[in-house]
Amino acid sequence: MAGESSAGAKGLAMVVLGLLVGGAAMAGGFAIGSQTARPIVEAGTPGTPAAPVELTIHMKNFKFDPASVEVAPGSTVTWVNDDDVYHTVTSDEASGPLQSPNVEKSQTYAYTFASEGTFNYHCTPHAARDTSGHGPLYSGMTGTVKVSGTASGTPPAPTGRQPLPPARPVQVFEIGRSAADVPAPITRTSPQEVHVSLETREVVAVIDPSVNATYTYWTFNGTVPGPMIRVLVNDTVHVHLTNAASSSMTHSIDLHAVMGPGGGATVTQVAPGETKSFAFKAMRVGVYVYHCASPPVDSHIANGMYGLILVEPEGGLPAVDREYYVMQGEFYTNGTTGEAGHHFFDTDNLLAEHPTYVAFNGRKGSLMGPGRALEADVNDTVRIFFGVGGPNLISSFHVIGQIFDRVYPEGDLVGDPHYNVQTTLVPAGGASVVEFVTLVPGTYLLVDHSLTRTIQKGSLGALVVTGPADPSVYSAG
After folding, report:
1. Spacing of C-alpha 78 from chain mean position
2. Which secondary-structure segment (H or E) carries 359?
3. Same-domain check for residues 141 and 199
4. Residues 248, 333 within the same domain
5. Angle CA 403–407–413, to nearest 5
6. What mean pLDDT do residues 189-194 have?
7. Residue 149: pLDDT band with limits 50, 70, 90
């Protein structure tokens, strides 16, 4: 804004930084306590059996550590926030005793437990509520304090990895957006006002149909990826973002095609049941990623919140026979690849960059089989808009049995393309466009050529080409 003070600009920059690291810059500075207010016995230090103790639970890496403790009545538990973002300590039951305000970095929240019982709690912004009855009431950042007259003030002994709970009833039949769901090419020649409406939804769907494994996804419009957006350069785009009332989290949108603070995220932090809007001018031709940018941003992306926006040049793109929309993303769960049951998001695996699944369009096998694989006829020109939601891995995108006639790296549709490319690198938060001609019939596999991801974790799709053979190009014997 013209005439904005340097202090105001600095404040805005801090808001943007807060979005990236988790929202601390946007939260109020409510002082709860000091980490050194009094001597505190670290959790895990044996206390006197059946006598009150003082313990510390750390809020670190979006987990309570330890997540479960046993103490005697009269014990005081103090939670210390070691993260850069704020957390809460909130009883699962609305009438429960743990009701902290926002606990900022280095602040504490303490509670003395007077009576016996089991007290389950969660962090409000970093846990998801589930009322289906098929698992715990909350998943994500959760903890338990058990108060018993025989407790010794130590965490319970580890019981080893528990099997996943049963798969949950799905709320959407198909989480994976069809690769054929591409908006039609733009035929108009002048910019106009364009309105884009999106809804963020948290839904249960199948992540691995081979073993009946489900997962709670966070999405744009109920699919992964979200809808592809197609506009003309210099269009004024009005984005209307609604967060479904059933959501447990605040959501937002950062479009890499936006030239403005946060890509739109600073003005679209939308609470459940609310709608926020903003407008931007699409000034740069290219293919760009969009994603949720609510704290913690990596967790929202890892749960499926990403898509592509195409800004077409004047006159449009050259005509082709087929256009497809494919995005790769990682899913970090508390289960193992190919394990049946309901998978929950797992922060430790995210921090280790150890995904359970790496998938095209939302789930294992999403682009395989009848009605899901890409299709073409012999001698068709195929264009694939390919993006990587991430949040962490670079894709080595390759189609087995094809050579890309043209690759538009980094989503650049203005510069000269690369020609005769076998495999193209696409970074997390980046996109590319590949084009090729299908010369002979057959099934061509789409892969991330970091092949363990394809063979073991699911980054596999198919292009089925039908039509007459051409022995001069390819033949057996």
Report:
1. 31
2. strand 357-360
3. no
4. yes
5. 160
6. 96
7. confident
**β-bridge partners, 407:** 418, 434
Residue 474 located in a structural domain: no
Rounded CA-CA distance 274/232 in Å is 29
Structural domains of the chain, count: 2
Boundaries of domain holding 133: 30-147
What's the whole-model pTM score? 0.77
Helix (H) / strand (E) element for 431: namely strand 430-437
Please indicate, yes or no, if residue 174 is contained in any of the structural domains: no
Q: Share the mean pLDDT of the chain.
A: 88
441-456 pLDDT, tens per residue? 999 999 999 999 999 9
Section 128-147 average pLDDT = 74
Residue 167 lies in a domain: no
Rounded mean pLDDT, 329-340: 96
The per-residue pLDDT for 249 is: 87
pLDDT at 141: 84
Same domain, 247 and 140: no
* Beta strands, E only, 51-192: 54-60, 63-65, 68-71, 75-81, 90-91, 108-113, 117-129, 138-147
Contacts of 140 by beta carbon, 8 Å cutoff, 6+ apart: 62, 122, 123, 126, 127, 128, 344, 345
Question: Model confidence over 318-328: pLDDT tens digits?
Answer: 999 999 999 99
CA dihedral 299, 292, 324, 359 (to 10 degrees): 0
Q: Are residues 142 and 222 in the same domain?
A: no
Beta bridge partners of 111: 77
Q: Which of 2-11, 151-160, 267-276, 395-404 has the lowest mean pLDDT?
A: 2-11
Same domain, residue pair 308 and 214:
yes
| CATH assignment of the domain containing 81 | 2.60.40.420
Q: Identify the sign of the CA torsion 463, 467, 468, 472.
A: negative
| Same domain membership, residue 112 and residue 222 | no
Contact (Cβ atoms closer than 8 angstroms) between residue 110 and residue 77 = yes
DSSP letter (8 states) at residue 227:
-
Strand partners, 436: 382
Examine residue 296 and say whether the peptide bond preceding it is cis (omega within 30 degrees of 0). yes
Q: What is the pLDDT of residue 164?
A: 87
